[in-house]
Automatic annotation (TrEMBL):
Residues 114-422 form the Phosphofructokinase domain. The record marks 212 as: Important for substrate specificity. This is ATP-dependent 6-phosphofructokinase. Coiled coil: none annotated. HAMAP family: Phosphofructokinase_II_X (MF_01981). It comes from Trapa incisa.
């Protein structure tokens, strides 16, 4: 149950009246904060089974905790930090999450910890960094020596022996793409997984994966609780598409945007070097267009950005063909970026294709890039017979997924891993660490598994895309 905490009223008033200041006559007051309850092992285990002990960081030769180093139970992170100073709020309750970081008291005997780390789903830049930093954090900060990697995703809990991980083994993993633990989709058998965790004596489980993996982790937490096991489970969200909700961003996303520039630059060169050249780049983004959006804004060479959140059409006034025709007439070339989930509802499908699913149970997507390439050539041959056109299609998906994380994502992965360790040691379970408005928090796993981070096509960022590309809004009249 969430807790509502009453706070002393804080008055935020205008410092100075001027024509440039918003002028609420009265100050803005905060009266209460609703703190999301974070699951804890103490919710279902008796206190006798969960003794607290001082954090071993107190004895760590590299740390000298000072006043304010440890996070207190009253430290929270506000979900929303932008408010209307007119004071007209639709909700007087301000949602908050528990702040991430080391606690003065922990609930594990670190000499008895057996930690398991698993990667599930597709590849993403930074996976190996997260694994490495989990090992380094557990080993160096808390003195844990029993750390194991589970091979090949969820199925590895019951189908293969885990690999013991050491500092020496993981030393250079952050410089490698992919995952050294291997990964797979599917293989989720709840009882076999929890049986495997229990039989191998794991009492800390670190699950790295996307939204489907997080939904599986919620079920694992529930089953562990049903069996009343002293096992803490945390999820570290991995999705290169940046479609996990609540947190500011997912790890690997910034690397993906940076790598996408190479594909866009190549498409631009190809288009510019041809007669009536069109460079077409398909980027990752099944249900959200964040990579396509940010890559478009970063490039400044893109003429049209197509994303799943914004429907588009090909023919007629305001359609893609008319827009590209004008661009080719004005500039002699054009670059189109399309997210893989865009246009799926207008691509012709057979009945079998409608029913097709991937290994994770998601609807199988058709290749929007290949389809667009064919349609562009067909349109040009029909409306401009005898005129040259060159459509150069680039799909860098696997090149982007497989690269090592860049410096920004490496730092992010380190902070995520260490935040996860601190939370688990404090006895929390069923949570996700992540930044909210730049500060790291612990979010209930179930809430993250439900939340989606879609592009809001009515906000400023999408307006910036429209202003950079001058593309149509694709609203049919």
């Amino acid at each position: 149950m969430d807790a509502t905490i009453s706070l002393p009223k804080t008055d935020i008033s205008n410092e100075k009246s001027s024509p440039f200041n918003a002028e609420p006559e009265e100050g803005l007051s905060f009266s209460s904060v609703t703190l999301r309850k974070l699951p804890h092992l103490g919710d279902y285990l008796p206190a006798s089974d969960l003794p607290s002990r001082p954090n071993p960081l107190e004895r760590n030769q590299y740390f000298h905790p000072t006043e304010g180093f440890y996070v207190s139970p009253s430290d929270v992170i506000l979900r929303q930090i932008v408010y209307d100073l007119s004071g007209k709020f639709s909700d007087t309750s301000h949602l908050a999450y528990t702040r991430a970081g080391p606690r003065r008291q922990i609930f594990f005997d670190t000499a008895m910890v057996r930690a398991a780390i698993v990667t599930c789903g597709g590849l993403c830049p930074g996976l190996n960094t997260v694994i490495r930093e989990l090992v380094v954090g557990l080993w160096e900060l808390y003195g844990v020596r029993e750390i194991y990697g589970v091979i090949a995703g969820y199925r590895g809990f019951y189908s293969s022996e885990p690999v013991q991980l050491t500092l020496k083994m993981v030393d250079g993993w952050h410089k490698r793409g992919g995952t050294a633990l291997e990964t797979s989709r599917g293989g989720f058998d709840l009882h076999k997984i929890v049986d495997g965790i229990q039989q191998r004596g794991f009492n800390q489980v670190y699950i790295i994966g996307g939204d489907g993996t997080m939904r599986g982790a919620v079920k694992i937490v529930e089953e562990v609780r049903r069996r009343k096991l002293n096992i803490s489970v945390t999820g570290i969200p991995k999705t290169v598409d940046n479609d996990v909700g609540i947190i500011d961003r997912s790890f690997g996303f910034q690397t993906a945007v940076e790598m996408a520039q190479q594909a866009i630059n190549a498409a631009h060169v190809e288009a510019e070097s041809a007669v009536n050249g069109i460079g077409l780049v398909k980027l990752m983004g099944r249900s959200t267009g964040h990579i396509a959006l940010h890559a478009t804004l970063s490039s400044c060479d893109v003429d049209c950005c197509l994303i799943p959140e914004n429907d588009f059409f090909l023919e007629g006034p305001g359609g893609l063909f008319k827009f590209l025709e004008r661009r080719l007439r004005e500039n002699g070339h054009a670059v189109v970026v399309v997210a893989e989930g865009a246009g799926q509802d207008i691509i012709p499908r057979t009945e079998a294709q409608r029913e097709d699913r991937d290994e994770s149970g998601n609807p199988a997507f058709l290749d929007v890039g290949g389809w667009l390439k064919v349609e562009l050539k067909r349109w040009w041959a029909r409306d401009h017979p005898g005129e040259l056109i060159a459509v150069k299609y680039i799909d860098p998906t696997y090149m982007i997924r497989a690269v090592p994380a860049n410096a920004t994502d490496n730092l992010y992965c380190t902070l995520l891993a260490h935040s996860a360790i601190h939370g688990v040691m404090a006895g929390y379970t069923g949570f996700v660490p992540g930044p909210i408005n730049g500060s790291y928090a612990y979010i209930p796993l179930e809430e993250v598994a439900r939340a989606r981070n879609e592009v809001n096509t009515r906000n400023h960022k999408w307006a910036w895309v429209r202003s950079v590309t001058n593309q149509p809004d694709f609203v049919q009249t």
